[in-house]
Amino acid sequence: MLLIILLIFMIAGAIIALETKNLLSAVIAVGAVGAGVSICFLMLGAPDIAITQMAVETLSLVILIRATISRDLTHVTAQKEVGGLIAIGVFMAIFVLFSTFALMEIPSFGKPLMTVSSHYVQNGLAQTGASNIVSAIILDYRGYDTLGEATILFVAVAGAIVLLRKKGRKKVGEKDE
Amino acid sequence: MNKPGMTLIVKTIVRISTSLILLYGVYIVAYGQLTPGGGFPGGVIIGAAFILLCLAFGKEVALKKMSTASASILDSAGALIFLGVALLGYIWGTFFLNFFPNKGIPFHLWTAGIIPLCNIGIGLKVSVCLFGAFIALVLFRVAKKEN
């Protein structure tokens, strides 16, 4: 029941974030959605993801508010186009249709049927020695995935620092080739 | 008041709370194999402590604590620790092998073989990465204002 209330709260926050004209209010509404997602994870028994969601949410809000919103860009005045709205409607209809087909096939909520995950749960403590099974999975059994994620973050931040640096590498008089 | 940063109240609170936030982040990283948490959220919390310093005291103070050069070095070091631990498994056979023969007593701090090492690497990497991204965006904004 509380989960449904939280979901309604999050949907309302998302709609407010889309529709409001003030960019700062939109960022704060997105933050409310993130906090709702975090409480949802906590209620569904995933404290690892809840901690990560809360920390990343707070940090990304601070970065968005402080570092990207400049003073002359806080109000959005652009109008929405009709063709774009029609395209969004068509693609959403296709997405909902196919996802309905897909969702009929998956096992019902909270029902562990997968053999791989039951193997992890039964042998995880003995094989890795980690009492937090999430750590055992993401850093031992599925360490390759985590390496990929770390590489993504590394490349993204390296690109951001290279693109946004203050001084260029070129000398003053040098020309483009 | 020509000093950069926020008011005296904010500075005092930040001065007290930053060390506690750092300690909490280190705790989350170090106990990642025992309790919920791990390298990524702990790293984000440590990075947030530095960003809090940067917000409250201005970017010069934060850059004195962690300059851009040392940030890039630590970032690469964290990534290399993680990749190196993964590659060390090749000595015993496969990629990402948990190569410690004795996993230790469960529910004690130094258990679980390579998992704490990976957590420390990821925590180092993520914290410095996010601080670096924030500093890059702030410097970009300052440079735009000067033009």
Rg for CA atoms of chain A: 22 Å
Beta-strand fraction estimate of chain B: under 5%
Shape of chain A: extended
> Helices and strands of chain B, in N-to-C order?
HHHHH
Structure, explained:
The complex is a heterodimer of chains A (177) and B (147). With 177 residues, chain A is mainly α. Chain A has 7 helices and no strands. Chain A has a domain at 1-78. The N and C termini of chain A lie far apart (64 Å). Chain B has 147 residues and is mainly α. Chain B has 5 helices and no strands. At the A-B interface, helix 3, helix 5, helix 6 and helix 7 of A face helix 2, helix 4 and helix 5 of B. Chain B: Keywords: Cell membrane, Membrane, Transmembrane, Transmembrane helix. Chain B: This is Na+/H+ antiporter MnhB subunit-related protein domain-containing protein. Chain B: It comes from Candidatus Desantisbacteria bacterium CG07_land_8_20_14_0_80_39_15. Chain B: The chain crosses the membrane at residues 12-34, 40-58, 79-100, 120-140.
Question: What is this entry, summarized?
Answer:
Chain A is mostly helical. Helices cover 73% and strands 0% of the residues of chain A.
